[in-house]
Amino acid sequence: MDLLLAATLNAGTILALAGLGLLINEKAGIVNLGAEGMMLCAALAGFATVVHTGSFSLGLLAGMATGALLAAAMGALVIFLHTNQYACGLALSLFGVGFSAYMGVDYVQATIPATPKFSVPVLADIPFIGPALFRQHLLVYGTVALAVFMAWFYNHTRSGLVLRSIGESPESAHALGYHVRGIRLLCVALGGSLCGLAGAYLSTIYTPLWTEGMVAGRGWIALALTAFATWRPMRILLGAYLFGGVTMLQLHLQATGAQIASQLLSMLPYLATIVVLVLISRNPIWIRTNMPASLGKPFVPSH
């Protein structure tokens, strides 16, 4: 059971990072449907960097840079050229799937050094909870800290309130003198860097290997997480662990020889996503109340 809990936290970290990145986008009013493609390209960039340098830190940074670059390119199109956010996001996702598959052919059989081991002294030796909670990669703890920071930032700082106002009413923020489009582009790039970090973590720490399509829908689940969590960072964290737990339960049942078709077990994470979205959609007023008012809407500044 302790191994299942540890694996849940590890798997949930990928979804949490991507979900928090998409939250930054959506709090600023931008819908980014390209998470799947960004994560795949970042996974390849991170893995290739570790193959050639042997540095996991550089691999994670390469993933962040790749995600930020792709997100900024999409952001420039939708923010300054007013192209359709949904179409651009889908195009980015499709591009990332194809581009990563093409460029990653030479890395399918590649190997990287052994993943560094982490543990918190003393606490890691506590029975049951020690191995589960205190022998995780540092990024697992960093993700929790990031969610706490974002919750505080959006609700208790002036900058956070400005970002929220841009997502709610960009016209009012512009009238007050804020550079709405520049701030939106910054938020899109920052959110993309977190999606890229999630992809690089997947290929260098979580697996670690590179294979075509290895993100396997996690980008779409992270997108659903933002609605599931009603655009609140701590709920995204909890939702990520929930979906991560479902994924690990599927693998655990397969390993124990449960008499359930493997195809049905593989469907569990995506089935859980669908069920959650159906339950949420039954209360559209609740969604509209929590969703940023300008989400998905273009902003053209008046002169």
TrEMBL record:
Cell compartment(s), UniProt: Cell membrane
GTP-binding among keywords: no
Leader sequence segment: none
Major localization class: membrane
Recorded GO MF terms: transmembrane transporter activity
Annotated transmembrane regions: 6-24, 31-50, 56-79, 86-105, 138-155, 183-203, 209-229, 236-254, 260-280
Keyword check for ATP-binding: no
Pfam families: BPD_transp_2
The entry's keywords: Cell membrane, Membrane, Transmembrane, Transmembrane helix
GO cellular component: plasma membrane
Topology term for the membrane: Multi-pass membrane protein
Family matches, as PANTHER family: ABC TRANSPORTER PERMEASE PROTEIN, SUGAR ABC TRANSPORTER INTEGRAL MEMBRANE PROTEIN-RELATED
Protein name: ABC transporter permease
Organism: Corticibacter populi
Organism lineage: Bacteria, Pseudomonadati, Pseudomonadota, Betaproteobacteria, Burkholderiales
